[in-house]
Amino acid sequence: MRPLFWGIVTTVIAFIGWLAVSVYCGIILGLKGDPGFFYMALVYVFGLTWMFSLPVVIVIEIVQWYRRR
Fold first, then answer.
1. What is the Cα–Cα distance from 2 to 60, expressed in whole angstroms?
2. How is residue 33 annotated by DSSP?
C-alpha cells in the first residue's frame, strides 16, 4: 500500500481519537474539575498525530516519487 493511504487512515483515526478524548476530558473537567495527566496527554498525542501525520506522509510520497523518477 502507498504511504498516502496509511497517512489518510492515521489522520482519520487520530481525529476520531482526539475528538473522543477531548469530549471526555471536557465532561470530566465540567464535573470534577481536573481530567488528569493521562487523559490530557492523550489529547495532545492524538492532536499532534492528527496535525502532522498527513504532511509527513505527503513529504514521504514526494521523496518516493522523486526517487522513482
1. 10
2. S
